[in-house]
């Protein structure tokens, strides 16, 4: 039993070290972002590109995001935006603080590589969907892992929170 426990501990330690070695950090205008290696790509998930759109910012154009202290954990999907259609494709976590994007790039990419950028806005008639998508069909690693391209998928406010039109609310506040 003792030898088995020691072997298991070594295996777990090796897995933890392997996962830690798969982490990658980049510095952005708003702070440091920690992503992860996925297949032969580097992915950064759920990076906010605007301030929280709830409260006083509801129905207003997006405001700049303040810099965050420390390191932003970009290893998990960000929240999806509120939506009226509740089907299997709705993200698990939804909130008004949903203006986030995901970035995939080929493993080992540097700023000097000057790769083209492909931006993907999910469908859903401006009423439903997210940058996570059903069954990970919007996972940019499928493209960034096969071609020298950076892939970005972004959320935008849906339904009345992004596209309501009245005499006082004019314009597109989805993005």
From TrEMBL:
Key words of the record: Signal
Pfam families for the chain: COesterase
Domain Carboxylesterase type B per the UniProt entry, residue ranges: 23-175
Listed InterPro entries: AB_hydrolase_fold, CarbesteraseB, Type-B_Carboxylest/Lipase
Gene3D superfamilies, A to Z: alpha/beta hydrolase (3.40.50.1820)
Signal peptide coordinates: 1-21
Superkingdom: Eukaryota
Metal-binding is among the record's keywords: no
PANTHER family: CARBOXYLESTERASE
Protein name: Carboxylesterase type B domain-containing protein
């Amino acid at each position: 039993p003792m030898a088995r426990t020691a072997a298991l501990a070594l295996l777990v330690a090796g897995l933890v070290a392997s996962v830690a070695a798969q982490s990658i950090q980049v510095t952005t205008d708003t702070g440091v972002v920690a992503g992860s290696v996925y297949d032969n790509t580097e992915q950064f998930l759920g990076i906010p590109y605007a301030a929280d759109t709830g409260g006083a910012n509801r129905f207003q154009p997006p405001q700049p995001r303040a810099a965050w202290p420390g390191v932003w954990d970009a290893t998990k999907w960000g929240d999806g935006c509120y939506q009226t259609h509740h089907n299997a494709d709705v993200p698990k976590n939804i909130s008004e603080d949903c203006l986030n994007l995901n970035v995939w790039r080929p493993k080992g990419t540097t700023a000097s590589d000057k790769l083209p950028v492909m931006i993907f806005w999910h469908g859903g008639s401006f009423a439903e969907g997210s940058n996570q998508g059903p069954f990970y069909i919007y996972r940019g690693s499928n493209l960034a892992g096969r071609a020298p391209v950076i892939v970005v998928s972004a959320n935008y406010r849906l339904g009345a929170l992004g596209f309501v039109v009245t005499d006082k609310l004019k314009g597109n506040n989805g993005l």
